[in-house]
Amino acid sequence: MSEHYDLLVVGGGINGAGIARDAAGRGLSVLLVEQRDLASATSSSSTKLIHGGLRYLEHYEFRLVREALQEREVLLAAAPHIIWPLTFVLPHHKGLRPKWMLRAGLFLYDHLAKRKRLPASRALSLNGTAEGKPLLDQFTSGFSYSDCWVDDARLVVLNALDAQARGAVIKTRTRCAALVRGTDGWTATLQSEDGKETSVSAKAVVNAAGPWVTDMVNRAGLGDKAAGLRLVKGSHFIVPRIHPHDHCYIFQNGDGRIAFAIPYQQDYTLIGTTDVPYDGDPADVKISDGEIDYLLELVNGYLATPLTRADIVWDYAGVRPLYDDKNSNASAVTRDYVFDLDTGDGDAPAILSIYGGKITTYRRLAEHALQKLCPVLGNHASDWTATSVLPGGDMSDGDFERFLSSVRTKFGWLPEQIAHRWARCYGTRLFEIAPDAKAIGDLGPEIAPNLFEAELRFLMSQEWARSAEDVLWRRTKLGLGMEESDINAVRDWFANRADQLAAQ
């Protein structure tokens, strides 16, 4: 007999993980399946910001911006270890948007939603300041405003962890190969990496497959009902740190787009992003030479010391699965989310397909999805996620610096770099990594620089990590700047535990 669930969620990105968490917290039995690793596609390829989307005001996306602005404060309280405030510096370019327009936009940005922890925008003089030092002399004034930084891949993992803690079953490396609608529910054929197939049933399905959302509609036999999907590629690259302060720059371009230069992993700066129509395999997306040239030209129009291709130490690209609103400009395609709820003739088992969305509004998206699904599932539980912290975020008053100080005191033997990284990655869960450790030697062998076996075992047993790539590029960002020999050492560590991984 196959396992039966109230809800099958297909897709382990931020939308799928958020929905699984919300549903499990309402008492529904939930199975989430992801064909690769959690956050292995779009959700680990973002610009890593929790933001309202200042430029969306020009496209009159007021509801989206307001909702996103409201969510900044909610998510800051929920995960203060992986989300924190960030000041943005917007230099005024005399040939582009006039000052009055920037000031008006920022006034709206300040007042579309209430702020508790984030300061309001203000005018800046850039002459002789730390903010002005990296810029060309022609940029003498500008504005600052606040949004937030997020570790995007870890946000997905934390939602999956909380979903699991509330009873959900999370299966990675598991592909939903087929969906068949019956009179009382759906039957799904699931395929593991080794090709083994199993069958499960569910009262309803959430199709949160991101770039593969229309593929899942087809597998459900509903291809003729699929909504329009627009794939838009966004690419980024990483360079050595271009400025000594912790602020982010937002640079305008003559084509109406913007680019960010964001402090990244202490020693680097993240540059992005692009908006390019994409029609290839979402699993094989890469930055193009044209995108590199575009971003270099854009940021070099502002920087006193120009960047070159030789400065790029890493790059990444992702595909945004946007709802096709028929806008000919890829940058203007709505970032709002769209639900397609199919109940057949009115009382058939439901499938909810999700198009679009932003990482900032994932929690509201999940909440709205359950508001649609709960009536058809006979569930009457109330919304709950707005006041609930994510795993590791339960530190006193959400004060990360106070928490970090306590970690340094408790683990005086732990190198500062590791203590800070563990506090950021895991929050209060760091005490579970090696609960009996009293010295650095108790963490086991150092498999790669600052990566000890105790942490690898924790990630493998507690966070679904099954490869070096899962650890080095998603659970952590330790792969950045790491030698190939060190990366291979982590790969070997996982290879030597193939039997353990197969048994999970």
Question: Can you put this structure into words, describing what you see?
Answer:
With 504 residues, the protein is α+β, with helices and mostly antiparallel strands. It folds into three domains: 168 residues, FAD/NAD(P)-binding domain (3-Layer(bba) Sandwich), CATH 3.50.50.60; 161 residues, D-Amino Acid Oxidase, subunit A, domain 2 (D-Amino Acid Oxidase, Chain A, domain 2); 108 residues, Alpha-glycerophosphate oxidase, cap domain (Helicase, Ruva Protein, domain 3, Orthogonal Bundle). Helix content is 30%, strand content 24%. It has 13 helices and 20 strands. Strands 3, 4, 5, 6, 11, 12, 13, 14, 15 and 16 form a ten-stranded mixed beta sheet that branches. Strands 1, 2, 7, 8, 9, 10, 17 and 18 form an eight-stranded mixed beta sheet that branches. A two-stranded antiparallel ribbon has the order 19-20. Strand 13 and strand 14 form a beta hairpin. Helix 1 runs parallel beside helix 4. It is globular. The chain starts with a strand and ends with a helix. The mean pLDDT is 94.
Summary tags:
single chain, 504 residues, FAD/NAD(P)-binding domain, Helicase, Ruva Protein, domain 3, 3 domains, ten-stranded mixed beta sheet, eight-stranded mixed beta sheet
Radius of gyration: 23 Å
Major sheet: 10 strands, mixed
Total helices: the number is 13
CATH domain class of the largest domain: Alpha Beta
Number of individual domains = 3
Global structural class: alpha+beta
CATH architecture of the largest domain: 3-Layer(bba) Sandwich
Strand tally, please? 20
Q: What is the helix fraction of residues, given as a range?
A: 25-40%
Strand content: 15-25%
Mean pLDDT: 94
CATH names the topology of the largest domain as FAD/NAD(P)-binding domain
